[in-house]
Fold these 2 entries.
Entry 1:
Amino acid sequence: MKSDRMRRGRQRGHAMIELALSAGIMIACLSGTFQFGYTFYIYDQLVSAVGNGARYAGSRTYRAASAADIEKGKAAIRNLVVYGNSRPASDAAPVTPNLKPENVQVTWISGEKGVPDAVDVTIVKYPVGAMFGSFNFDHRPLAEFPFVGRYAPSESEP
Amino acid sequence: MAGRRPAPLTLRPISAVVLDVGRKNRQRGFVLIAMSVSMLLLLAVMGMCFDLGRIYIARNEAQVFTDSAAMTAAAKLDGTPAGVVRAREAVAHLPMRWNLGTQPFTGVVIEFSSDGRIWDRDPKDASGLTLARVTAPANGVDIVFLRAAGGPKSFTVPSRSVAGVKPVRLVE
């Protein structure tokens, strides 16, 4: 009787250890899957956003009456990447959590006579926090599109 | 003397004892099998998530690249053979990468056409060219997990885009 009770107690102990070990492995696997899956999802969203932003930048009018106008144009491009709209509403939500216009870098590549040849749009210093730790996207993803828009060096941004 | 009566000695039949031991052994085996099967399923789902995620990203990256490359090539066409050369060079110098932004695009095919029906990689007459077509055919994503479950070693995600010399300009 006593040895039977002891055996049952030992079995319960074994079961608890087995459960702890197997649950630990399963939780690690599931959280790892979530971590990678979520990061991939965010990266995929960023690839689309950066591509759309670069295409928009290459097709819009380049106004360069002053440095402020060029900066205003860049701000519109950043807004399109982050919010999907060059003039977002005040309560607009970013395409990915915590993405801000400061995380988008827009670089005009000058061609002949100051006319832009192409535009580079990329994500800089954007941390993606999943469950454990975070991945930092810096200068990736990147998209470069040719400038095919209208060149208006004497016009100001509206 | 009022002593306690000893508990009646009950003997379990030997067949019950054997069955009990057998059941416990079977239970122990069942836990092992259940764990193995569930771990295998979990790993398969995890692998599918990881590998398919990378495939979707590669597809998106390749599509953005070919869109950009086709527009770049078309923008360089000016009706001269030099324009065709410039188009090829411009596409070769695009900084975009794939596989989570780590690998350059290789084997990129650039073709030109004047009517959208006949495409030529090396056109003899450049005067009437109005369209550029770019294909990125060699984006083979290495399959890491699904390979273990009988999946392929790699999965190619080709992409293709066409652009014209008269692009759409935004009024904005």
Entry 2:
Amino acid sequence: MAEVELREVTKIFGKNVVAVDHVSFTVHDGEFVVILGPSGCGKTTTLRLIAGLESVTSGEILINGRVVNDVPPKDRDIAMVFQNYALYPHMTVFDNMAFGLKMRKVPKDEIRRRVLEAAEILGIQDLLDRKPRELSGGQRQRVAVGRAIVRHPQVFLFDEPLSNLDAKMRVRMRAELANLHKRIGATSIYVTHDQVEAMTLGDRIVLLNEGKVQQIADPLTLYHQPLNRFVAGFIGSPPMNFFEGVLEEKDGTLRFVNAFMEVPIPKEKQKNLQTGMKVTLGVRPEDLYHAPYRKDEEPSFQATVEFRETLGNEVLVYYRRDDVQFISRIPPHHIPNEGETLEVFIHLPNIHLFDAESGVNLTVNL
Amino acid sequence: MSKRLKVLGFGLLLFGITVYSLFPFYWAVISSFKPSSDLFSTTLKLWPIPWTWEHYKNVFLAANFGRNLLNSLAVAGGTTLVALSLGSFAAYALGRLPLHGKNVLLYLVLAMTMFPQIAVLSGLFVLLRGLGLFNTHPGLILSYLLFTLPFTVWVMTQYFRTLPRELEEAAYVDGASPLMAFWRILLPLTGPGLVTTGLLAFIAAWNEFLFALTFTVGDKVRTVPVAIAFFGGASPYEVPWGSIMAASVVVTVPLVVLVFVFQHRIVAGLTAGAIKE
């Protein structure tokens, strides 16, 4: 097993397309780290750099303390599961899984033993004589994973392995991957744009945007203490609501003020705040609700219900006030009517305030 | 109504094309079985009655036709092997490696096929004599690469281009060297391309006449098309049509068999299941 470290890794394609921009992070031995970000953020490129399928422009990649910048992929002792599986179409499932071992000149009976072992873990013993084209998507995915685990590599790399599966299969494979990691405990790096996958699988998440690291943290920290507005808006579905405004002192308390809101800032969040600052108020949908769900004395403002999405266990209410649209997530017991104008309350302990210019969260790490 | 007319018209067209292209071969086959006297009869006979093996006997007993057949086999087979092995290496490089000036190279290769055979004949003659390859099998093979290698490179390049990049990368991550990835993963997947281009190269070399005529002397190396042209009759005034037809049938049959054998291999979708489209 192994530790992977990236030090100020930069990848520039052509003359000036910066795909990965001074990215640094460490994946500890046995850890499952997810690289998350919107498409085009450089996450797949980062993974390919670790695999050795692309060469770094500057910076260092270390596996077990050894700089591997100039080591070809075959000598890095990594295994990769590709987005489109990349199974060898002319080989049986058995041969697909055995190929890496054959290349490493593992004895025949040892190959057989390891392939059977991996096939059993993944429940594909019956498919060993089939060709990839005779398999369903989920089965192909298992074979691709099997091809990786028979090798007992130092590091597993996953490049959006579930994105080609249908929704139901994706949930199932997600759970299977989580189980597999528990069982094998191998160092894994997993790339996805799906935050649910990231939150459920990752010990830690590296959130990338435009080639830069936005935040590295465990899922809950990422959700509750986003370092900037991008992280706050990317993590969580539906996303966090944002309101633009300024900070003003009124009646001895610091308040967030705009055309229709006046929100007193709790004392413990004020450390980095000053009167007159232009800020963005961030409130998660579950921290906005109408009267029946009000918790205690809370600031409120008027807004009109545009439409609702009833999801069964919860309801998403889309409000509008002036030009600002926002979402409230509530239990399904008291559903407001469309077109109704209501008092909307804000749960103060969970609000965030971001610098309007830089997007930095001013209310974390106090 | 108009749809039925269309179908009928299309059927007629197909029938016309089939007759047009197959009738000469049919005529050769029945002529090879007709007794010599019938060959010059003016009544149209579409069926060889009475029929005879006589021409086939003549072909194999009289001349060195067996030797010529073996020569053809050696030259066409050798050409195919060399064209495929050199061609697929070149195609791998042109189709998959990040090379500068790839397209210039490809068009240069294509440009070689522009020159008519007759234009390069004298140059090739000097070259082969200089190399000591005149009137040898390798000499003929070398000259045949002139027209088989370019299209092998072109067709195989297209095949290599269509293979998903991830397959090669998966092989690298699995521990394969570039040569191994080429040999074990990519080349098997270009199978249909290898079969198709191999077949075309074989046919082209098998049928070639001008180079074979110029670069061979006597029956030691001479190939079938030239040998047939040299068939002589019993007198200066007799063209031995029967033997010529019999020999033509004999050389055509292997090609037809080859195409029938390999048509199952020329299947699309060999890469099905590799990746999800």
